[in-house]
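A common beginner's mistake is to predict each chain separately and then try to dock the pieces by hand. The better habit, illustrated here, is to supply every component at once so that their relative placement is modeled jointly.
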Amino acid sequence: MQPYNNKDHARQLLERLHQEAVRPVAVMEVCGTHTVVISRTGIRAALRDAVTLVSGPGCPVCVTSQGDVDAMVELASRGLTVYTFGDMMRVPGTADSLETVRARGGRVRLAYSPADAVAHAASRPAEQVVFLAVGFETTAPGVALALRQARDLGLGNFTVYPAHKLIPPALRALLDREEAKVAGFLLPGHVSTVIGRQALSFLARDYGLPAAIAGFESVDILMAVDRLTEMMARGEVAVVNMYPRAVREEGNRLALDAMWSCFEPCDASWRGLGAIAASGLNLRDRWRDFDARCRYGVSAREAPVRAGCRCGDVLRGKVLPPACTLFAQVCTPARPQGPCMVSSEGACAAYFRYERGDGCDRGPEGSGDAGPR
Amino acid sequence: MCLAIPSKILSIRGHTAEIDVGGNTKEVNIILTPEAKVGDYVLIHAGFAIQVIDEQAAAEIFEAWEEAYAALQ
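With all components supplied together, the output reads:
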């Protein structure tokens, strides 16, 4: 893994990118992990004159609708044992977050894996366990495997709240609605590991846009951006795989088969983008017994976001975090008003920590000792 | 969320692999990467291996880039 963090390589790539740039081109990066790495390593700032890297809806926690958050909080408030990925804990719902429910005695647990929730359900038959299934195509196959395991174990006390979302339909929606005024895309390396390069080739074929699938080390990202700008300079339109050590043409067939065996596409509501057809995952009929919404009669209802919160606009790449009046004033990592500041992969959190122009890394809590990066 | 770490497989028992994570070991499910062998690096996400890392592919892309850079000098 050595070369991908090599400072010399990074410096050479930055040099080349600056040499090639005629004027800044806008590229959208659609992966929360990319957002953070690009900010934390200083790549965003370093490339400013050559390439404008705009964050898109790539953070699954951030794009979870307010209605879904409220429904999840409702489940946690009913004495159920709710397992969630860590980032969801502090997302503010209309009245409460999972964290505030936990503080009042709710049984909310952190899951590293959906398998944790299944194991808990198996060992505690008296508890009703719900797993909050948030995440893109990277995560859904694992949830499907956990569901299979729950069924094989004959568990009657395990359900999931399905909130998975699919990346390709979101990209199509952004482009069809002309939301994303970008000349190309940096594509998520681990979603692509599951779905394959071919699932993203529509960007070139149907929209005439170049795109590069990128890994997550600094050199990975710079190499992908370099290849993208090269394509733009030559008028080349293709979706190239710059992360071949993980991404194959067809992705991971077993992972996709697992996902599609439990789930089917459904319309879904994305924070910031609203309803997108066939962009979510619903449990298939034969898995409906494992749907927490059916078992507990809970569903997502339209819910307004906090006054002044512009997470939605940030997620569409319409504005940068500092354009939100709440940013860094009312809304900070310690007191988040919306998911983009809560999530470790949210654009607002990344900008708060790494893009505030004074060269200081405020660390993961945003309030650590300020010091030069 | 898309955080997936490349980790080396130390041992395999059925669908469970013991992986090395910075000196500590951890168990993960490798049912999605049946071709994985002891000694391979796999990408782990939320407790599941989602891909075996292909170092050969990595080396090739690197060489291609290094040639391109050298040609510019």
